[in-house]
Amino acid sequence: MKHMMNQRNTRLLRTAAVLVGLLGVLTMSASAMHIAEGYLPVGWAAGWGVVCVPFVVAGFLSIQKKVAQAPKAKILLAMCGAFAFVLSALKIPSFEGSCSHPTGVGLGAILFGPMTMAVLGLIVLLFQALLLAHGGLTTLGANTFSMAIAGPIVSWAVYKLLRKANAPAAVAVFAAAALGDLFTYVVTSVQLGVVHGGIGKFLMIFAVTQIPLAIAEGLLTVVVFNVLEKYSREELHALCVL
Description:
The chain is mainly α. The chain is built from 9 helices and 2 strands, in the order H-H-H-E-E-H-H-H-H-H-H. The chain has helices at residues 2-28, 42-69, 74-88, 105-112, 114-131, 140-164, 169-196, 199-231, 233-238, and strands at 92-93, 99-100. The longest helix is centred in the C-terminal third of the chain and has 33 residues, at 199-231.
């Protein structure tokens, strides 16, 4: 049994490594998500931080509930955080203090719900700001709202609606991940456009690169979900995903 578990874990790690590598290659050819340090006025930056507080609190409560509901899913929870960290760290410099990249939050929203991703996303963004100079501390609230709150809510809602409509799991997962990614870029465009003028300008510029990235992220998320469905069905059933 132990040998079989080791083989399963090895296959999962190899699959994840290959898929992340492929998406990294795709992003190398891309040319909107993390807002850089200092690109928002202090008042706006603080305001976005305040808006995030209730979602983060709800996220901690959601994590406690999910872990109590499915104790074995702790590994999946950590994996979702790592998945979001790696994908959203594949940054491509874009326009006016921002960058294009996948978000990786759709998978976690599907498995654990959107509020859980508010906490995981905040942690991801904080570490990226401190360790990778990706994003910023003053813009942490704005980046958290767009990538860790707005995007996951859309991903979760799309997945639930499509599954209720009897859509295949692969279709629901792809649409959820891709649309969550795109909505994140829409929110970021609004955040920058309101301050710097021209929401449409940001939407048009970011769309050129973010749409292909969203499609790539959707496909990658489907493959990862299929692997989890094959090797972690017990945990997915406990989380009421299947």
